Sequence to fold (306 residues):
Amino acid sequence: MLKHRLISAAILLSLLSGSLLLKDLPGQLLFLAFATLLVVKGSREFLNMSSLIYSKGYTWIAGLCAILPVYGAFFENFYGRKNLSFAGFAATISFLLIGGFSKVLREPDLKNGLMKMTATLACFTYLVIPTWFLAMVYFGCGLNISGDERKLTFFIIAVTKASDVGAYFVGMTSNKLLPGGNHKIAPRLSPGKSWEGFFGGIAFSIGVAFLFLQLSEGRLGSCILEFHNGVGRGLNAWDCIIVGSVCAILGFIGDVSESVMKRVSGLKDSGSILPGMGGVLDVLDSLILVSPLFYAYLWFRLPIVS
Fold:
């Protein structure tokens, strides 16, 4: 299991690193392709779980509405036109409602149609909106960060996923070392999650955030994360503590929330596309609650684009 998990993690990290390291349009297109794959596959996984719980939504409407906001963020960066991403998001909402209710009205059973529409809206809210905010950070939509937006994306993903890694290893180690095992948080939903792992995840997230701080100030070599016209000379210690702690806590809540859906639907994993990790939602669950709040944090922390 650990071997397969590490292989899948290496593949995902390679794709993410490529979108960060490749300059200009090639990197942006790689990120766009990667994000498209995630939201389309993730939408299918969500609707599959939904069908096992109460009703399956409108797959093609959910899939199309999943990619439109991400492409809106790309074209805002490509054409340099402000607020194009928000305009595209507004158009996506209209298409979702018009297309969805047009399908509902053609259903023989209107109640069943409304249940499908509800599942489609839930998919959009749960998966598409958070992914859109992550894309907005990557393409710098509405943020005055002068070219460092891609590094910010890598930062928030690294800090959030560090919590998953820390929780996994600290939880596993404490379960072996402590007499009687570690202290479970929600054994009915996720037997592997413990309080030891939870606090270990917070420590890992803050540690990774401080690592980026050291890199941004050139203390550990070349500058990897540096803000221009943004947060003064870069990240500070309070940013690391706040972002690291919040990412770990919200990441944990996102993980447990997906566990609820899997438990009710009777599935062990949301999918099988990533050996050792499961499906797309199993990877994105910790980022779903983090990305919108991180965008809001940057919007208030950075100067507003004029």
About this structure: Residues 269 and 298 are 33 Å apart (CA to CA). The mean pLDDT is 83. The first helix runs from residue 2 to 21.
